[in-house]
C-alpha cells in the first residue's frame, strides 16, 4: 500500500487483543454445567469471530452437540461467565499500544468493528486502557448484521463520516476480508490471529507479521 489513509477500522479479538484464554475459560465453565468435557485454548481460537451465539454453538458441537432447550439461554449463561472475567488474562498483542499511540498522534481516526457484544467490548477497552484511541466502537449487538456482512463495516464508515476509499480495515480472519472487500475498503490482516487458514491465503491486500508494521503500511511513517 503506497497511499496514506485517514481512518483505520480494527477488528478486536485476534487483531488487537489476545482474548482466547478468557473466552476458553467461559466456554469451559458453560460446558461443565452441561456435563461436557473442556476444550483447549487451541480448540477455541478458531471458533472465535462470529459472535457469542456461534462460539457457543461451535463449542457444544465439538463436544457432542447442542443440549436441549433454548440456545439463547446458553448464550445468556456464557455472557454471565465471560463478562465479569473478560480481562483476567486478556491482553493487547505486542506492539498494539505503541502503534495506536503513533497512529493517533499522526492524525488518523481509529475505530472498532467487532462481532463481540458491545458491553464486553467497551469493558475490555476500558480495562486495558485502549478506549481513548477509538472515535467509534461498533459491537455485534449495535447492528442487525455481523461480519462478514459488509453493512457492519459500512455502519462504522457512516459514523466516522469517512469515504471507503479513505479507510483501511485491519483484521485476522476471512470474515474480516469479506466484510472489508464487500464495503470496498482495503484490508490488512495480521498473521498471528485466530484463523485455521494461514492469513496469507485469505485474499487480503496485505499481511503483516508485526503490529508495528502497520505504521508504514498505512502511510503514517512519513
Structure description:
With 222 residues, the chain is an alpha/beta fold. The protein has two domains: 7-18 and 90-217, 3-Layer(aba) Sandwich (Rossmann fold), CATH 3.40.50.1000; 20-85, DNA polymerase, domain 1, CATH 1.10.150. The protein has helices at 20-33, 41-44, 52-62, 71-82, 96-105, 118-127, 150-160, 174-182, 214-217, and strands at 7-10, 17-18, 91-92, 109-113, 136-138, 167-171, 186-190, 206-208. Strand 4 (109-113), helix 6 (118-127) and strand 5 form a beta-alpha-beta unit. The longest helix is centred in the first third of the chain and has 14 residues, at 20-33.
Notable features of this structure?
2 domains; 38% helix; 222 residues; elongated; Rossmann fold; alpha/beta; DNA polymerase, domain 1
Low-confidence stretches: none
SS field, number of helical segments: 9
Identify the CATH class of the largest domain. Alpha Beta
Total domains:
2
Per DSSP, what share of the residues sits in E-state strands of 2 or more residues? 5-15%
CA(first)-CA(last) distance:
13 Å
| Radius of gyration (Å) | 17 Å
Quickly give the CATH architecture of the largest domain: 3-Layer(aba) Sandwich
Helix fraction, binned, reads: 25-40%
What structural class do the secondary elements suggest?
alpha/beta
In the CATH hierarchy, the third-tier topology of the largest domain is known as Rossmann fold
Overall mean confidence score, pLDDT: 94
**Overall morphology:** elongated
H-E string: EEHHHHEHEHEHEHEEH
How many strand elements? 8
CATH superfamily of the largest domain: HAD superfamily/HAD-like
**For the largest beta sheet, what order do the strands appear in spatially?**
5-4-1-6-7-8
Note the main sheet: 6 strands, parallel
